[in-house]
Protein: protein-glutamate O-methyltransferase
Amino acid sequence: MPLQPDDFAWLRQHVRRRSGLVLEQDTAALVETRLTWLMREEQVADVTALLARLRAQPENSPLHQRMTEALANHETAFFRDASVFESLRSTVLPALLARRGRTRTLRIWCAACAFGQEPYSVAMTLAEAGLLITGWTVRILATDFSTRALVRASEARYDAQEIHRGLTPLLRQRYFHQERDGGGRINEQLRKAVELRPLNLMEDFPPEPPMDVVFLRNVMIYWDAPTRRAVLARVRRMLHADGYLVLGAAEAAPLVEDGFSRHLIGQTGWYRPAPVPGVVPVATVDERSQTRAPPRVTP
Structure:
């Protein structure tokens, strides 16, 4: 039985609440396709039976999580939008290193890391700059709401097509251990530089020291305006006053009242925190304080 209008309306509301994803009215067929593997795993006859099972379970059940993950788009690539990483290498990193000379600490957050290509691309950029073997304390935090995606990111194994998409032969040689099937695994130096954690951007963020750079790319295009504004407000609280936010090329720029100003760096737009009239900034955790972090995701 195909997806019924009442069931689709319930699913749209449910998914938006859990992940911020807005399912348009004309995506019912696509939704059914993406849920096919879940129907198979649950051994149900059709999508109607799957949704009936979902409605009978509490929202925090594993089935609800798997359903939301099935509808998410984890499409990504190494060094996706190469100009972003060129700007990071040539302009953003030198500026941050000059300003962080006293603490010699650098924190970067990839806020929707999917299968890990983005944070590992950041790690390669820092490694090429020598920052992973110097006296600097470098932290690359990578989060995603999908536990399936995080497990794959922690394994750091990619097939031949994924490795050849966006990576030069030199980077493949330096940072991958080749495997028999033509794919490869990220080397230990880069894997150790990336800390993977589960985090749903729809929820309050745990206390963290301020971040120097936040990558929030190609995720807000799936959200409506109220969701974007709420998440941007939380992200702004996570940024150093002189930090940087980078979004996807196709995403709407933050408004002035969101507290960001746009700066063209190279060929890409980067965003810096700006004062918001009438808004008192929320205090962040001091860099010297100790916070109890959730456990790392391990393969």
